[in-house]
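Practice problem: predict the structure.
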Amino acid sequence: YDYELNRIAKSKHWHALGYLLNNMGLTKVKTKQYQEALTMYEKALLYFEKSKNERDYVNTLSNLAQLYYETTDYTKAIQTAEKGYMQAKKMRDYGLLLEIANRLIQTYKAEKNNEKIYFYQNEKTAYQDTLLQFKQEKELLAISFQEQNAAKRKELHALEEYNTRLFFYTLFALGTIATLVMVSFLTVRSNVLYRKYLQEEARKNELQAILIKEGKENAALQQEIWLEERTQNELKQQVNALNQARLKDKVDFQARQLASQSTMLIQKNDWLIEIEEKLKIQLNNLPTEQQTGLTRQFRHLFREIQQGLHIEDDWESYKQHFAQVHPLFFDKLQARFPKITNNDLRMCAYLKMNIPNREIAQMLNIGEPSLRVNLTRLKGKFDLGKEDDLRTFLSNLLF
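Answer:
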């Protein structure tokens, strides 16, 4: 955190500074360092005001209210939460309103203020109903869009049939007109030139033979055209089959590459931890005089090992490969559950790949108990019960 704070402060990226300090405050609250957490939250609020990011500003107020609640300063907790509640109400952010309403209900329960508890419970119910209504409206819009597409496809099919019939009717009319013109011409010629009747009869017979021959040639030509079209359709089907096979091979290769990268990340972290443990053992085995002289050098090595365990380049590379295998996974997940953090997205990606919990804890450089706490909190964000399986939920969700 200190490294990132110094790096971002140089660029004066106020929103990034506020976001980092907010997360640092959450970490301090977890370790019960409340005074340091309070200082970080206040700085984060100032940075969010400079960046004019209202949603993160309200989210920080909610975290600050939770801090006051844990330190039993219920008056400040209520003031801070109600300030965030009014700001979220102006923004019409029902997710934040629902979260802050829970904070206020929790605080008023501690003060046994039943009137406020009843008021905010009604507000909470209304926001839940509103979010449910938004979800239902979204589903109805999707169904309506599908029905409109079906109707348009039906109209297009009817138009194609009409054009086909019109084409054959036109050919039939042209053929009929040509025949009538020919018969009329022969009739006029026979009346005018009666004396040449026999000659004209012969020519007429000859002309009919030519027409029959042309008809056969036209039929043969149409047969060839039909065969050529069928051959082209078969070639298109073969090309489509080849493209699908190539796409499947590409996805399989990317999935194998993603699994290989996961294994490499785990092996890298195991290797760094093993090196750190061996260095500590070597340092402890040295005499006290040598330990005093080498402590600073070993401390520098331990810091570099920890930075190697927390390096984000591995995650960014893994994230790119994951997006190729499961496109739009992160976008859809954030669109449906806007409260989840980047760390939550990272755990979801590992769970989606069916990586065991022990290996996920190693990749995040945390203990398995801490990972179980994070997974329980993540299930709460997804509104899942204790009996629901988080991996199954992510496998079936939206995809």
